[in-house]
Amino acid sequence: SHIYCQLVLVTPSSSSSYLVLFDFSHRVNDCRRVGITCPIVPGIMPINTYRGFLRMTGIPAEITAALEPIKDNDEAVKSYGIHLGTEICKKILANGISTLHLYTFNVEKSALAILMNLGLIEERKVSRGISVSRIVEEAEAKTG
User: Fold this and answer.
1) Domain range spanning residue 15?
2) Which long-range contacts (CB under 8 A, 24 or more apart) does 101-110 make?
3) Residue-wise pLDDT tens for the chain (144 aa)?
4) Staple 101 to which of 38, 43, 46, 93, CB 3.0 to 4.6 Å?
5) If phi over 0 gives left and psi between -120 and 50 gives alpha, with beta otherwise, what is residue 55?
6) How far apart are CA 64 and CA 85, in angstroms?
């Protein structure tokens, strides 16, 4: 069952192979319809750099178009990635999925910014150097 979930949720026909954007809830419903009841946790990889973005496959054209004019401005790309990640997470949470997996690849600032934008962690706790594991525990407690 777990393998089927992964294959259904990350297929070439999905909006994106690195994160399923708009049809995530439809894919989850497909899994549920065939009797799959395992937890389905969406993985979100914030866009941190344009070069890193180019290595991804299956990116929707609207994201590529939004990044093209700012591709040489690292801060603008990171800001866009945080905004996009926040909006995607909001949509996922609004569809009843209460668990998110944010990929950091040892660059946690964008993931932390997304969690702050969602109101799951407080900036003052991050800036005081509280460990990421404690922040995650607090975020999990808020989402139940």
Assistant:
1) 2-104
2) 101/41, 101/42, 101/43, 101/44, 102/43, 102/44, 102/45, 102/46, 103/43, 103/44, 103/45, 103/46, 105/45, 107/48, 108/132, 110/46, 110/47, 110/48, 110/78, 110/81, 110/82, 110/85
3) 455 555 444 444 333 434 444 467 777 788 889 998 888 788 888 888 898 888 876 677 888 899 999 999 999 999 999 999 998 889 888 877 788 888 888 888 899 999 999 998 877 766 655 555 666 666 666 655
4) 43
5) alpha
6) 15
11 within domain boundaries = yes
Residue 40 lies inside a defined structural domain of this protein: yes
Residue 47 lies in a domain: yes
What is the pTM assigned to this prediction?
Answer: 0.70
The domain tally of the chain equals 1
